[in-house]
Amino acid sequence: MNKNSMLSGSILKGVMLFAFPIMLSQLLQYNYSFVDNIIVGRYAGNAALAAVGNVGAINSFVIGAALGLTNGFTIPVAHAFGAGDRRAVAKYAGSSIVVAFLIGLVIVVTAHILSTPLLRLIGTPDEIIGLSASYVNILYYAVPIQMLSNNFTAISRAVGESRKPLYFYAASGLVNLFLDLLFVKHFGWGVKGAAVATLLSHCVAALLTGIYVFRFNKNVDIKKEDLRPNSKTAWSQIKLGIPVSLQFTITSVGSMALQSAVNSFGASVMAGFTAAARVESLTNIPMSGFGVAAQTFSGQNFGAKNSERIIKGTKMILAFGIMTSVLMSLILYFAGPYAVSLFMKEQNAEIMTAAKAYIKAVAQCYSLVAVLLVLRNSLQGMGFTYANAIAGAGELFGRLAIAFIFTRLIGFSAVCYAGPAAWLLADIPLAIIYIHKLKLLKTGEIYENKHNSEKQQSHRFV
Question: What pTM does this model have?
Answer without folding.
Answer: 0.83
